[in-house]
Design goal:
single chain, alpha/beta, D-Maltodextrin-Binding Protein, domain 2, 2 domains, 10-stranded mixed sheet, two-stranded antiparallel ribbon, 8 helices, about 20% strand
């Protein structure tokens, strides 16, 4: 049957749209990859308003200091959007574009991508200097006679269970409203007050909180891995997925500012590990 004018027109129109889609596809893919709706005048960070030593509204945390360092180097004004760092933190902040950066990300999250790490720390043992014992590992038999504290769900809790020590453990809740509670810091305070004998706490919190107690405390960094359980972790920053240019820019900043970042961290008495998991001396 011969083609009508209408049929020829429809086919030509379809061909036109096919060609248009092919031409625009690379541009669309590029837009998806590089569409980074960030304000070039500000560095906007999402942070916890009451979570020392990491951050607070008074800008006293080491993450506040590092964020300011980066903002100054980028010649931008630093501003914060405050949100408690608990369940839903990334979903309610970074993902809905309330900010462009989250500090202190220790694991891969499907809602964000990580920058290169800017420090590595490890879990520690904390006890009073006048305790009358010296313990440097979690398999020390003396632990069976002591009152222990650990944040529930953390890697050390796995080891304490494995070593049959949970009967001596006072657990501290992991997921809380940080505007009201700081369980890891409470564990350090309980050690200082004699309510427990020893706590196993994440290094950044332990190193900072131990120096702020009325009695001297001992902080012992644990090995990076014990019985296949990792106790040392890299810490990076978090940004939205597909923001490849922003990630590249931040990685350059972290490399450039690394000596000054390390100095800030050591000033907060954070136990730092190098790439070979050796303790970095202050």
């Amino acid at each position: 049957m011969p083609k009508t004018g209408s049929t020829v027109y429809c086919k030509a129109l379809n061909l036109f749209f096919c060609i248009l889609i092919l031409l625009l596809a690379p541009l669309t893919a590029s837009a998806i990859t590089t569409n980074e709706a960030r304000n070039k005048e500000y560095l906007t960070v999402c942070g916890d308003p009451n979570h020392l030593p990491f951050s607070n509204k008074e800008m006293e945390g080491f993450e506040n200091k590092i964020a300011q360092l980066i903002a100054d180097d980028l010649n931008r004004t630093l501003r914060y959007h405050w949100w408690p760092q608990t369940i839903g933190f990334v979903r309610n902040t970074l993902r809905v574009r309330l900010c462009d950066l989250v500090m202190g990300v220790t694991s891969v999250n499907e809602l964000l991508q990580n920058t290169n790490p800017y420090y590595r720390s490890v879990y520690t043992l904390v006890y009073r200097k006048d305790a009358g014992f010296e313990i440097r590992s979690l398999d020390n038999p003396a632990l069976k006679q002591l009152r222990l504290g650990v944040v529930a769900g953390t890697p050390p809790a796995t080891l304490l269970t494995k070593y049959g020590l949970m009967a001596q453990v006072r657990p501290y809740q992991r997921t809380v409203d940080t505007r009201l509670f700081s369980p890891a810091t409470m564990a350090i305070e309980d050690v200082a007050m004699g309510n427990i004998d020893l706590a196993v706490i994440w290094g950044p919190i332990a190193g900072y909180a131990a120096t702020r107690q009325k009695v001297p405390l001992t902080v012992i960094p644990l090995p990076a891995k014990v019985d296949s359980v990792p106790l040392a972790f890299n810490v990076s920053m978090g940004i939205r997925r597909r923001e490849t240019n922003w990630k590249h820019q931040l990685n350059l900043e972290l490399e450039k500012l690394a000596p000054r970042i390390e100095e800030i961290l050591l000033d907060y008495n954070i136990p730092l590990l190098d790439t070979d998991d050796r303790l970095i001396k202050h």
